[in-house]
Structure formats: C-alpha cells, structure tokens
Amino acid sequence: MLVLNSNTKINIGLKVINKRSDGFHDIVTIFQEIDFGDKIQFKKVKIGCNIKSNVDWIPLNDSNLCYKAYDVLSKKFNRDLGVEIYVEKKVPVGSGIGGGSANAAATLLGINSLYNLGLDDKQLEIIGSHIGADVPFFIRGGAQVGEETGCKLTPIREKIDAVILLVIPSVSISTKWAYDQITVSYTHLRAHETEADLVCRLLREK
User: pLDDT, tens digit, for every residue of 65-89?
Assistant: First the structure.
C-alpha cells in the first residue's frame, strides 16, 4: 500500500489573456502549493479501478479524475494497471483550489510508483495535461508560473515568504462557469500580457 498527500494550491494573481479556438483560455498566474488537501491510499489489484472515500459527495465512477488518471496510464502502457484508491477527502468540490486535479496528479504519481513505470516528472506532466489544465502543476508542486492554459510551467526559485489565511465559503463554483462570466475585452488584456520571466524578476525585486 502507498499513501500520498494530495495538497492543493492557490493562485497568486490570475490574468486571462484570451479565449482560444479550443474553448479554453490562455492565462498567466502563479501557482502556489499549500499544506492543505486530501490524503489518498493506493493498493494494487488485478484489474480495474475501485475508488472509495470517506465522503458521499464525490463520484466514485469513471467521471472521477482519479479514474481518468488510471485509465490514461493503462492505455499508454497497453495493460490494466489495476488499483484500489481510497480518497480521504477534506477539500470541498468547486472550491477553486484544485482538489480534483491534485487527486489526479497524486494518482499518476501513485500508479507510477506502484508499478515501477519509470515515468519522470516531465512525462507525467504531459500525461496530466490530457486530464486537466491544473494537473501538471501538482506533479512537482511548489511555486510555479503557469502560462497558456496553465500547463506551461516555470518553477520559481524565490521562496514566497507569506502566511496564508485560506477561507473556503460554502459555495461551489465550476471553473467553466467562472471563465464564461468574463466579458471584458481580450484585446486589452493581450496588450498587457505578463511573461514568466517578468513575474520572476518582480518577485526577486519585491
């Protein structure tokens, strides 16, 4: 059995650059991992992906991002990487701190370790990008600049020295709904696009 923490993140600033032809948005943001999240247990089984949890408000079927992570790895290696997953859930759904994406990343890391698949972090990030835009960040965590859909990552070496008060209201907001509410001109935003190197420089100079 393998047990992994599934830490979440906050976005320190979020600039929406434009809406892409595929329906997603190009953004610039700073992802910062925080010491708050779920705990996930993994155990090898012969076939399939059996998901269990301590709560009854997450899906336990193939719509769960943990299942999607299992499925994409099994297809990549053309074998059933059977796993039993127990999600000790603390992070509310729709809280905007990446709980589901973190779970998916933890599952990629967990199955990679259980089956000695030999995938490195970069390979896992690429695989994670097919599951969700935030998934690649959680492979390495820490502090990183996210660009494009959030999948283009640049690690930040400078430590962000801060105390974070995390307040999660009892409101669930879907990411798609939130982006659909953007009505400002993308042309204006594009003219002020922030690049990863500028973000890092500003952090060093603060």
Answer: 999 999 999 999 999 999 999 999 9
User: In which band, very low, low, confident or very high, does the pLDDT at 188 lie, cut at 50, 70 and 90?
Assistant: very low
| Residue type for position 57 | W
- Beta carbons of 83 and 110 less than 8 angstroms apart: yes
Is the separation of the CB atoms in 71 and 82 below 8 Å? no
Single-letter code of the amino acid located at 138 = F
The band of 160, judged by pLDDT with boundaries at 50, 70 and 90, is confident
User: Residues 60, 63, 68, CA angle at the centre, nearest 5°?
Assistant: 100
User: Any idea which residues carry the catalytic annotation?
Assistant: 9, 134
Determine the straight-line distance between the first and last CA of the chain, rounded to whole angstroms. Answer: 44
Which of 119, 124, 197, 184 minimizes the C-alpha distance to 158? 197
